[in-house]
Amino acid sequence: MRSSLRPYLPVLALGVLLALAPLLLTSNVALNFLAVTLIVSLAAQGWNLLGGFGGQFSFGHAAFFGVGAYSSAIWQMRFGLDAWTGLLVGTAMGAVTGLVIGFLAFRAGLRGSYFALVTLAFAEVFRVLANSSEVTGGAAGMLLPLKIGAGNLQFSDRATFLGLVVALTVLVLGLVQWIRGSRFGAQLVALRENEEAARALGVDVLAVKLKAIGLSGAITATAGVLYLQYFLFIDANIAFGTWISVEVLLAAIVGGLGTVLGPVVGALALHGLGELVKAAVGQLPGIDLAVYGAILVVAVAFLPGGLVGLARRRAAPRQVRKAEPEGGRA
Amino acid sequence: MSISNGRIGRRTVLRGGAALGATLAMPGILRAQTPEAIKVGILQPVTGTLAQDGELGRTGAEHAIKAVNDAGGIASLGGAKLEMVFADARSTPEGGTAAVEQLQSDGVAAIVGGFASPICLASSQAAARYDLPYIVDVGVSDQIVSRGLTNTFRFAPGFGTCSKTAIDNLVKLNEAAGNPARTVVLVHEDGLFGSGLAKLMAAELPKHGFEILDTIAHPTPARDMSNVALRIRSLKPDLIIPSSYYGETVLLMRTLHQQRVEPKGFYSVLNGAASNMRFVKEFPEVADLDMDCNHWHDPRKDEAQALKKSVEDAGGLWAYNIPLNYSCVKLLADAIDRAKSTEPKAINEALAASTFEGHIMPYGPTKFENGQNTGARPVSLQVQEGEIKVIYPEEFANAKPVFPIGG
């Protein structure tokens, strides 16, 4: 029992830390920062499942983020249904989109940069469609009416919303940790390391990839729905814009590819340091973005295992050098 | 000093203590004399794609705060001065929301700015959580004032009013010249403002006898306009109506100029370039005789002319963001003065009941309905001899329209 729970300890520890935040923080600046960062980190966890564990790099996770956000918005505004089921619908639509894109791309045997380009193309196509279609409000986007109430997934204080985001983040962290230890997780890592070898060992590569992209799409779509509920406004450039595709990729890479905590740590580090610098330097516009870029360069150049990898290497230098358990190969 | 044998005497201690006490008490005395400054949140995107507009907006706000303070501050609050607390919206709704939270925690009495519609939508909503007064400077989306938020006020005209005025003025312009223009090509950016406007134009212009030859969309940012220009050249329209942001409009106009596309007129609506002196200064030949229906200061007002001169003397460029933000801050100062308080609720009520005339826009006294200033209207402008002139409405036009070009 004890040993089976042991892998979950880091997740639990981070979960407890994050759960304390809405209770202890009183500053709305901090609450807002955490909420937005965790939404990004949730989307990044979706990316990490497919890209980090499965080695299928997507440049177009905005497709899932946007599908989640728009599905929920359409569900609520065009059909007049409630926001909580909207959250489920958004998540489900993300999974379906993942399966469809995955089926088309993986069945055609697309890998590596080809797969990345196809995902990018899907996100762009969705952006153009959302920008011109009546159902999605065209270029005017969709504005959810401000109706504060738990039933509408709109909360008067930021702490409650943050609580919800934290709960979902921890839930997904737990799920990813579970996947990592599961047969499916092992198959996923196997096909990342050597697809041919995995196939030779009897892994159904297409099925594993599809499962991964479906789950990945669902998780990132959930983040999209949360974004919608938080800002109550989306348009094609927000929902399907390249910004989110890049953000999720960066958070996962800086945090640690193929690690459970990587995306959360990465998002917090990137955004947090940017904010700290902004607070310290003050009026110089764009300084936080410069720091953001600098961290990225440093992370890519010197931290192949991301921040989580660095922490591990510090904690157990010899073991890591011998085994490189995960995420070492970006 | 009565320090004997290296020791400090009793009297010295007493004297020193008294001096110290007086020094510490001084700021308190000073505070009592000058009322505490009122913090005003200025929210503009100064990083990201909208940085140029954000800087212009900030310039306008800075000048207004200086003007209010130089005129003695807020009279009803004992001459309290305005103090600018600036926040960068980073050209995104998330950035705007984070900035609102920061401004609220900094203790601002109200927020002015936002510039782009998505930023204004998200930021005003974030401010609504605190009932914090929010004056939208530009954001033309009519959704901004249709949400029933009691804290959100838009001083400038929205999309509906701008496009209607633009079409009215265009029809007037064409009729006055003997209807030389009949065919039109619409070029628009594919976002909220460009698409919306093009759709409206495509629906409205045929009613006035114009024929739409094509509607061409382009993304923002766009790096090449050659294909668009070639398409326009093959269509030979009388009139080109571009609805794009600064960079893309400049690119389009330059490409058309290089390819010698010479229509009878360029008539844009809420365009990012045709009413920007940077364009006029950097590409005078290309910009010459371009028309635009946009926000603009009232050229009859001395204060507007003085502000323009002051901005230009300091090496700055003049664009509509400056007089709009200038006016919005002055509108806020007036509301605080009448509210006699910096409480959000009182300022919101004062804004809602505002009949402010001390602005530099061609609007008349403000009158807010559901947060929209109903008297707000755009004007039609034309670049003539390196200057941006008002050509419509006639009552304060400072130039006659030159249309058709070469006609």
Describe this protein's structure.
The complex is a heterodimer of chains A (330) and B (407). Chain A has 16 helices and two strands. With 330 residues, chain A is mainly α. Chain A has a two-stranded antiparallel ribbon with strand order 1-2. In chain A, helix 3 packs parallel to helix 7 and helix 3 runs antiparallel to helix 13. The two termini of chain A are 34 Å apart. The C terminus of chain A is likely disordered. With 407 residues, chain B is an alpha/beta fold. In chain B, the strands form four sheets. Chain B has a seven-stranded mixed β-sheet, with helices on both faces. In chain B, strands 4-3-5-6-7 form a five-stranded parallel β-sheet, sandwiched between helices. In chain B, strands 1-2 form a two-stranded antiparallel sheet. The radius of gyration of chain B is 25 Å and the shape is elongated. Classes of the chains: A mainly alpha (330), B alpha/beta (407). Chains A and B meet through helix 3 and helix 6 of A and helix 3, helix 4 and helix 6 of B. Chain A: It comes from Jiella avicenniae. Chain A: Keywords: Cell membrane, Membrane, Transmembrane, Transmembrane helix. Chain A: GO terms for molecular function: branched-chain amino acid transmembrane transporter activity.
Read across the widest sheet of chain B, the strand sequence of neighbours is 9-8-10-11-12-15-16
Major sheet summary line of chain B: 7 strands, mixed
How many separate domains of chain B?
2
Question: Number of helix segments of chain A?
Answer: 16
Q: Please tally the β strands of chain B and state the result.
A: 16
Could you say which overall geometry of chain A the principal axes of the C-alpha atoms support?
A: globular
Q: Considering the protein shown, what is the CATH homologous superfamily of the largest domain in chain B?
A: Response regulator
By oligomeric state, this entry counts as heterodimer
Mean pLDDT of chain B: 89
Q: What does the largest sheet of chain A look like?
A: 2 strands, antiparallel
Count of discrete domains of chain A: 1
**Strand-and-helix sequence of chain B, N→C?**
EEHEHEHEHEEHEHEHEHEHHEHHHEEEE
Query: Which percent range fits the helix content of chain B?
Result: 40-55%
Count of distinct strands of chain A: 2
